[in-house]
Amino acid sequence: PPSAHLRYATLVNDNPNQDANIAWQQDGSTYSLDVKFWILFVGEIFFKSSGKIDEYGISPDNYSEKVGKRNRAVEFNRTNQELFFTSNKTNVPLPLGVQDRFSVIFQLSALVTGNPDIDLEGVARKIPIADVNRVDDWIFISQGDVEMPYQQLEKPILTRHFLRSSRNENDRRKLEVWLA
Known about the structure:
By secondary structure, the chain is mainly beta. The protein contains 1 helix and 13 strands.
């Protein structure tokens, strides 16, 4: 996607929260993604992802997050094919196509923009995600194309809607993505 500064409404436990600010910058070969928002009793939350853009899409080199006073990071070492987690000081093998928790949304966007005929309704896409201390497979299920109201236009815009499946039976977090 082209460089942009975006602002999103956020919910925490289904309660409205302050807006999140997302700064996405890319020059065709590298990218930088900064996400900032604030949560009551936690304070400022900041996520940063940076890396390369190649023939496979987005390839993170570094991911970091600051939640309150806690800082954690993941280093994507493509030379040694390893991930390094600063939170638990461990290395694990680098899975093919691995993303971080925020680059994955831009990777989905790049995939659908590159070929709108992929990931039609009902298709499940598994993407390995480097969290701050492990790798999980996230499964995005395409809900198909959905018309969404858009305040600046008189007619709705067509979006591709994805829903991430629960990662385990205790996972109550929900992630939905609409790509326009």
